Amino acid sequence: MEIKLEENEIIDDLEFNGLKIIQNKNWFKFGIDSVLLSDFAKSIKNGAIVLDIGTGTGIISILLSKKTDAKKFVGIEVQKDVANMAIKSVELNNLQNKIEIINDNINNIEKYFNKKYFDCIVTNPPYQKNNTGLKSENEKQLISRHETMCTLEDIIEKSVSLLKDNGEFYMVHRPERLVDIMYLMRKYKLEPKELKFVYPKFGEKANLILIKGVKYANEFLKIHKPLIIYNNDGSYTDEILKIYNKGK
Question: Whole-prediction pTM value?
Fold first, then answer.
């Protein structure tokens, strides 16, 4: 299928099962956090219907479409031109029968789906509270990094409403927001069940967390062993190479 690229759009190889993605080289591009989340969530149940909140260019849904046997993915993205790139990436990978992209705000999700519709939700949300931290002059990066269009509480509240009972929720975020995350998950009856801290290198502070919650589950939190991204020489660790399907 021939895909028409707009100005500054490029096709990147995801180096997994022949998958590719379209991105704009001047906008916010996906990072390793999305790749790590797709690996963390690969235990999604067979036949699941999955919602990807803030899908961006569709990276998480596209990767999970080949890492799992989920039935369908729905990605919702508030930025129209970013959502259009996601649609083209879905077409580029011939995944139209498995991935649907919606251009709207998560706060409007009830227009499309009834409550308790999804088996699983994945999300790589904006990490920064609005009016905090350094803000980029690039509007695309601003919306991707700051809670300008929806908040962490919006995402968790909507997720609980949309998930079936015992439905699963997977998220990547920053360690400094962990107290907020735990508080909000408990507030809306989304019980934290698994937590993994991600470190850039040995001896450095964690810069990402991966967290799984289950709607209405009993209390019990499993903390995984830490995930280290780089060796001291700057090369990827064996665990990261395995995630990228390059391990021995």
Answer: 0.91
